Amino acid sequence: MNNPTMFKPCSVTTDTHALVSYFPIPFFGVLPVNAFLIHAAQPVLVDTGLGALKDRFMKNLRSLIALEDLRWLWLTHTDADHMGNLTQVLAEAPKARVVTTFLGMGKMALHQLPLDRVFLLNPGQSLDVGDRKLTCVKPPSYDAPETTGLFDSKTRIFFSADCFGALMKEPAVSAADIAPSDLRDGLITWATIDAPWLQTLNQREFDRSVTMVRQLGASTVLSNHLPPATGMTEVLLHYLASSRSAAPFTGPDQAALEQMFRGKSGS
Asked: What domains, with CATH codes, occur in the chain?
């Protein structure tokens, strides 16, 4: 896989779909880049995917919902792979409001997002979407300070933003389809890249964040960077804990990059 690729939407539960894409990472394989649609009484889109895949993303999203019915767009954070199609979605979904934090709103100021289309929600607070509540949760790891995940009270799904992401050898339908050693190595590598501060966090604070996840009692974890993981919360938490003692990430250098280019030109 040499270019970002989008797959068909997949059903996670009867009322939750994943909009699945993969981004190639030189030297490491591929990284899932997911967005999610919750078919609540007031429908909710969680993140907006890669801008490079705008046409395919919007086509897939339109196949799942009439965008004039979309009421909420939960933006977990403002990285490009999470808000890549924000402008297009908001243009086609006039009733949708962006759920974010005060810091997230500030970081989006350059996008000139009207204040009346923003809804500020802090960790511990909940959003009532008609047939369920979505509770704002600070995940155990993240790469942007405004990051929030969410817990769906009806489906008991924990949407964990970047947390529990994993670099993968190839696409997979579910996290359970990945060989345990590959999942462990991929998750640890991703954590050392995405949240290097985890290795300096004191044990008490880390344990507190892990306990918070356990207390959610989530049936499924949906990370933006991992296939759906059902009944695997303890496994994911164990791998995340292991990343705290892993070697710090050091990326390939220029010599390695040039060698990769030579290999491609010679193939």
From this structure: 5-266 (3.60.15.10)
Considering the chain, what is the average pLDDT of its residues? 95
CB 37 within 8 A of CB 62: no
The pLDDT-based confidence of 2 (bands split at 50, 70, 90) is confident
DSSP string computed for 231-247: S-HHHHHHHHHHHTTSP
Provide the terminal-to-terminal Cα distance of the chain, rounded to the nearest Å: 15
- Give the residues across from 36 on adjacent strands: 18, 46
- pLDDT of 267 reads 53
Q: Where are the alpha helices (DSSP H) in 108-196?
A: 180-194
155: which residues sit within 8 A by CB, 6+ positions away? 13, 15, 16, 38, 132, 219, 220
pLDDT in tens, 113-135: 888 899 999 999 999 999 999 99
Q: Give helix 180-194 / helix 233-243 axis angle, nearest 10°.
A: 50
For the CA atoms of 226, 232, 229, 22, the dihedral, rounded to the nearest 10 degrees, stands at 20
Q: What is the reported pTM?
A: 0.95
How far apart are alpha carbons 212 and 27 in whole angstroms? 34
